[in-house]
Amino acid sequence: MKKLSPEALLVLVSLADGPKHGYAMQQDIARISGRRLGPGSLYGAIARLEFAAYIEALGEQGPRRPYRLTGAGSKALAAELTALGRVTAAGKRRLAT
Length: 97
Known about the structure:
The chain is mostly helical. The protein is about 65% helix and about 5% strand. The chain has helices at about 5-15, 20-35, 40-50, 70-95, and strands spanning about 55, 65-70. It has a two-stranded antiparallel ribbon with strand order 1-2. The N and C termini lie far apart (about 35 Å). The mean pLDDT is about 95.
């Protein structure tokens, strides 16, 4: 399993609660992280995640194409969040001492 870029991680987190098209992901990511991904960053991450089979496109809905998390994407997200949790815990412990 490859290390996820920060943008890819945000896309996977956004899709963890259900399918979304690019604009909806962009809005959700801004809401949960305070970070607004530009179209190049967002769609670049989507393309890499789709190539890795972590997400898949669903049928087009008008001009929009929704994506959903795959089983492999769920596993990659869980592994990345576990690793981030360990780093976060270590950082908090070290700041407290």
